[in-house]
């Protein structure tokens, strides 16, 4: 399952949604690719039956725009301060930690955070974020290749 998080009307905040759109075109139709607003309770419901989940979201830390952060959330907590631009009181970080507490975290949960430049009103991505988006999409396609080649049970 791939979940792209964002708001398409807040500049680079649309990065996760753009990743989901691109991956939907590149992956087989059997792949579960969701576009999501980022509400934590809904995220927990979305990944409830998934074994492997990739999440893509924009982040805002002190790193340069376009920096790609890759976190294995199934092993370690996410740095909450990276995801502070979320408009949800209960967002991605909270959903992951609550699911971890209840033992409901997917076996493998990889989160890509793409450092954004602007989160102002508008539909344009910054050049740095757009370039990083291409690399993240390619990385996810490559990561899914071995999973697709496994024999079906």
CATH architecture: 3-Layer(aba) Sandwich
Low-confidence stretches: none
Strand content: 15-25%
**Helix/strand/pairing category:** alpha/beta
Rounded to an integer, what's the Rg over CA atoms?
A: 15 Å
- The fold-level CATH name is Rossmann fold
Individual helix count: 4
What's the short version?
The chain has helices at residues 15-26, 40-46, 92-102, 127-148, and strands at residues 2-5, 33-36, 52-59, 68-72, 108-115. It is of the alpha/beta class.
Give the key terms.
153 residues; alpha/beta; Rossmann fold; five-stranded mixed β-sheet; 5 strands
Textual characterization of the structure:
It is a single chain. By secondary structure, the protein is an alpha/beta fold. It has one domain (2-145): HybD-like (Rossmann fold, 3-Layer(aba) Sandwich). Helices cover 34% and strands 19% of the residues. It has four helices and five strands; from the N terminus they run βαβαββαβα. It has helices at 15-26, 40-46, 92-102, 127-148; strands spanning 2-5, 33-36, 52-59, 68-72, 108-115. A five-stranded mixed β-sheet has the order 2-1-3-5-4, covered by helices on one side. Helix 1 (15-26) links the parallel strand 1 (2-5) and strand 2. Helix 1 (15-26) crosses helix 4 and helix 2 (40-46) packs across helix 3. The longest helix is centred in the C-terminal third of the chain and has 22 residues, at 127-148.
């Amino acid at each position: 399952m791939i979940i792209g998080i964002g708001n398409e009307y807040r500049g680079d905040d649309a990065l996760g949604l753009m990743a989901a759109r691109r991956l939907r075109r590149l992956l087989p139709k059997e792949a579960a690719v969701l576009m999501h607003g980022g509400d934590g309770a809904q995220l927990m419901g979305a990944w409830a039956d998934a074994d492997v989940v990739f999440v893509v979201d924009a982040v805002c830390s002190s790193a340069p725009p376009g920096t790609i952060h890759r976190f294995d959330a199934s092993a370690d907590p996410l740095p909450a301060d990276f995801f502070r631009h979320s408009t949800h009181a209960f967002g991605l970080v909270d959903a992951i930690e609550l699911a971890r507490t209840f033992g409901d975290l997917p076996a493998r949960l990889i989160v890509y955070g793409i450092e954004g430049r602007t989160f102002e009103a508008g539909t344009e991505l910054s050049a740095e974020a757009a370039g990083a988006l291409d690399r993240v999409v390619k990385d996810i396609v490559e990561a899914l290749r071995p999973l697709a080649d496994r024999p079906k049970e």
